Amino acid sequence: MKEIIVKASDAYRILIGHDLLKETGPYVRELGSVSSVMIVSDDRVYALYGETVEASLRSAGFRVFSFVFPNGEKSKNLEVYGQLLNELAKQALTRNDLIAALGGGVVGDLAGFAAATYLRGIRFLQIPTTLLAAVDSSVGGKTAVDLSEGKNLVGAFHQPSLVLSDVDTLETLPEEQYRSGVAETLKYGVIGAEDLFRRWKTTPVKAMYEETVEAAVTMKRDLVEKDEFDRGDRMLLNFGHTFGHAAEACSQYGLLHGEAVAMGMAVITKAAETFGYAASGTAEELTETLRFYGLPVEIPYPKEALLPHLWLDKKGRGETVNLIVPERIGKCRILPVKKEDLGSWLEAGGVL
To answer: What average pLDDT does this structure show over 31-47?
Structure first.
């Protein structure tokens, strides 16, 4: 088992290994002064792992409740968030208690935002069961729900108390969820891990899950500790997300997050090369790698549909938006771009 410590405003451990779900109860017991645990999960994940996690928690002496909602990004909204808050109050959870997010990025974001706001903040546990959540969304304390106008527009920074990343759960991923997680994984290679990117080009990510999760989480840990509240270098983790989030919103959240990120990475890299920021051949190498994993490389929505969502991007600062622009595989920069110029960037990336 691997252990990584995140020293943010609240320090916590990330445990990466096998058979961790069965040990959920003992690990929660180590957190101290917890009486009740609310498991938050979606219907697909809960059917696979809910019983195992509940049994472990009950055997450790906790009162256990569950809140299960329909899987998919469309459930990450204010209505489901409100239902979860009401359930927490109904079961009389207190500040000494805990929310356990069992699932992928949608579950973690929703459960984390509820934990950040219920009683002005209670503790929560991340138990990622998808590759995307394991390498990215379970770590760093970003929590949110979506609005119809855009993704993750209502949220809070709230660090988990513990992350249990059981890599055995990744073996049950549907192919489309695996590909979605690969997109977020490749992102780390482009922003700062050239050697790993080259390996992922020839060795499938699924052949090196534990090593991949450890490498990605270590990179994210370093950026979070340096810039917890996303005002500087942590923004590099948003490579591909500005255009990707706009595509997600245009799809009414029918696209998987990783699919949208793949599109966004390909488009921004092509534009960066067109404008002379990226070395020649960078876009081709990235595009070939995305296609190797069966990921999309073009945004299927017109510029006019994407622009309103780009103007609402969380990386916006006044009249500019900070784009994460690659210079080569393994190195990106944060580039402020005037909102009026975003259309030119989309066009340069092949979006008309």
So the answer is: 97
